[in-house]
Specification:
It is a single chain. Helices cover about 40% and strands about 20% of the residues. It has eleven helices and eleven strands. Strands 1, 2, 3, 4, 5, 6, 7, 8, 9, 10 and 11 form an eleven-stranded mixed beta sheet that branches. The radius of gyration is 20 Å and the shape is globular.
Amino acid sequence: MPDCWALMASVCALVLTYNRPELADVCLTALMGQTRPCDRIIVLDNASTEEALSALRARWADRVAIHSLPRNVGAAGGYAAGMHLAYLTGADFVFTLDDDVELAPDAVANLLEAEAFLAAEKIPAPFLVAVSHTTAPNVFDLPDIALDAPWPRFLDKGLLPLRRSPINAMLFPRSTIARYGLPLADMFIWGEDTEYTMRISRDAPGFLVGAAKQLHHRVVAGKLDIRTETNPARVRYHRYQKRNLIYVMRKNARRIALLRQVMREAGIVLQLCGRGRFDRAWIAARGVVEGFFFSPRPQAADAPFDFAGVRTFGPDARVSPAPHITSV
């Protein structure tokens, strides 16, 4: 019965991309080669250059729907817009991917089998995510285990309950998006996945699926740190990282933990000043202060979106509801 249920469910995959057509090629090739194919694939292009978009179109516009935004709205805005489009297809599941993810051939099948097992056991799961390996040496994408859940009972099934995870190779039941809405588009970049997975797992944990695997082709190894950032174009984005971190901790952490984090951030600002990096110190300090006043509102899955200026290419580029086979 679980296997039949998994085969019947409809899946719409969403790939978020920005100026990386070579990586998108690898991602989409692996996605198209799944032993259990997705019913639809949507590519959300986050305002790439015309050259990058043309390369993406030349290779994929005859097989997937491509939606190119008129401006870069960051990973948070891109996922919010893309998940909205995927939700409108009527699919039972939305499967999210960054363009730097390469799936194992049976990743989708194993995620659906895990979902079917949990459903048969009447265990709600707001999300399921594939195990992430990375191309960077000695770097791992580690989620947060839900220690308050009875996780030992799931180990023999290769499942681990989670409260937080990157949303690379993450499978969302339609019911999750309908209930909790979309990622916070106003977060722009860095931290939107933490906020979203923590928000949707408050009542029940998500699960890491050991049999489902992904390879994360990381461009930058190591943790985000404005003190060691080497890409000048990314420095200013650390303002959002600091702001979003403080916001998430305001909403989820104890006051003492928030106070300790603020003290750590103050130490980073002082270190930057001591090195004469006053520009970076200002970016970090500004982000921390903004985190105390930042108050984005979640968007409902079917809320009106402004898609003015969005260019669409490929089959089914104009989203219309797909046959809804299974109610989740």
